[in-house]
């Protein structure tokens, strides 16, 4: 039988009983090393202990900060107890928002919203609450032979939203 001796010395277990690192433990550990402007966006732990931690900062996360966080976490994990790989990175500009802090970071910026029915709109994110986001749209209308920009603000319940992500503007 494929197995290993547990560190308690209580016999052999099949390979699928290898010590698994828990996502919840990694989240608690990660938060210890974040500054007050940094936040965890997501954590994934595979069955083979491949750990991916996505962190961001209200001011933007740097590679050096990801490296610092990774090294701090590594110092707390024991490779003698469990084999793992660790990657700490930013969530990426084109990935959908996952946590409220990402919404807060992007207030005043253009976002692409995809509704659960598939409709897409681009708007300026104005405010965020637990259940809604407030956006502002601008449309050009013709009034008395003049083009007029009309802005509208409205709330969208988050249960009606499939995804929200940043719009990358190269202007």
Structure explained in plain terms:
The chain is of the alpha+beta class. The strands form 3 sheets. It has a 5-stranded antiparallel sheet with strand order 9-8-7-6-10. The protein starts with a strand and ends in a 5-residue tail after the last strand. Strand 4 (about 50-55), helix 2 and strand 5 (about 85-90) form a beta-alpha-beta unit. About 15% of the residues lie in helices and about 40% in strands. The protein has helices at about 25-30, 65-75, 100-105, and strands at about 5, 10-15, 40-45, 50-55, 85-90, 110-115, 120-130, 130-145, 145-155, 160-165.
Topology, pairings included?
Blueprint: E1 3-5, E2 12-14, H1 23-31, E3 38-45, E4 50-57, H2 63-76, E5 85-89, H3 100-105, E6 110-115, E7 120-128, E8 132-143, E9 146-157, E10 161-166
Number of helices: 3
Tell me the helix content: 10-25%
Terminal CA distance? 62 Å
Structural class: alpha+beta
Show unreliable segments.
1-17
Shape: elongated
Q: What is the arithmetic mean of pLDDT?
A: 89
Strand order of the largest sheet: 9-8-7-6-10
Main beta sheet strand tally, sense and closure? 5 strands, antiparallel
The counted number of beta strands is: 10
Rg, Å, rounded: 22 Å
Q: List the helices and strands in order.
A: EEHEEHEHEEEEE
Q: Work out the strand percent.
A: 35-45%
Q: What brief labels describe this structure?
A:
single chain; 171 residues; alpha+beta; five-stranded antiparallel sheet; three-stranded mixed sheet; 3 helices; 17% helix
Concise summary:
17% of the residues lie in helices and 42% in strands. It has three helices and ten strands, in the order E-E-H-E-E-H-E-H-E-E-E-E-E.
């Amino acid at each position: 039988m494929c197995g290993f001796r547990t560190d308690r010395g209580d016999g052999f277990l099949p390979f699928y009983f290898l010590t698994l690192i828990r996502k919840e433990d990694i989240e608690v550990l990660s938060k210890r090393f974040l500054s007050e402007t940094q936040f965890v966006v997501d954590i994934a732990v595979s069955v083979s202990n491949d750990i991916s931690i996505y962190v961001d900062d209200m001011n933007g996360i740097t590679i050096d900060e990801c490296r610092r966080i990774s090294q701090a976490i590594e110092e707390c994990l024991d490779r003698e107890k469990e084999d793992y790989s660790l990657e700490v990175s930013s969530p990426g500009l084109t990935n959908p928002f996952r946590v409220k802090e990402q919404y807060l970071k992007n207030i005043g910026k253009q976002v692409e919203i995809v509704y659960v029915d598939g409709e897409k709109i681009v708007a300026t994110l104005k405010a965020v609450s637990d259940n809604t986001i407030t956006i502002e749209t601008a449309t050009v209308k013709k009034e008395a032979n003049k083009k007029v920009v009309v802005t509208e603000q409205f709330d969208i319940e988050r249960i009606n939203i499939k995804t929200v992500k940043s719009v990358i503007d190269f202007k």
